[in-house]
């Protein structure tokens, strides 16, 4: 939860412009962490949560990478975005292989 404390996230060069945004992002990350932990307990039944998380990772990468390169987030946002992109790719490529289901089954939560 270092995003709730500006001195911690500014240390590596990340700049989040308003205090509201760091709390909002921290809350979002805490929620997705809980969802992934719960999904890991019964992956077959909750795989759709992980699959949709991969799409959230792509959206985060689309926001973080340009924001770090061309915006005021700081260059540290670029590797954070690339890391999120890599995790999303692993989720999206690995789940169908591991569970033996199609992408559409995961997308529509039709995993049996």
Which descriptors apply to this entry?
112 residues; mainly alpha; 5 helices; 0% strand
Instruction: Give the overall pLDDT as a whole number.
Output: 90
Strand-and-helix sequence, N→C?
HHHHH
Topology, number of strands: 0
Biggest beta sheet attributes: none
Structural class, judged by helices and strands? mainly alpha
Low-confidence stretches: none
* Share in β-strands: under 5%
Helix content: over 70%
> What's the shape?
elongated
H/I helix tally = 5
Distance between the termini: 35 Å
Radius of gyration: 16 Å
Characterization of the model:
The chain is mainly alpha-helical. The chain is built from 5 helices and no strands. The protein has helices at 6-10, 19-41, 43-69, 77-99, 103-107. Helix 2 (19-41) packs antiparallel against helix 3 (43-69). The mean pLDDT is 90.
What is shown here, in short?
The chain has 112 residues and is mainly alpha-helical. The chain has five helices and no strands.
SSE order and pairing:
Blueprint (H helix, E strand, L loop, with lengths): L5 H5 L8 H23 L1 H27 L7 H23 L3 H5 L5
Helix pairs in contact: 2-3, 3-4
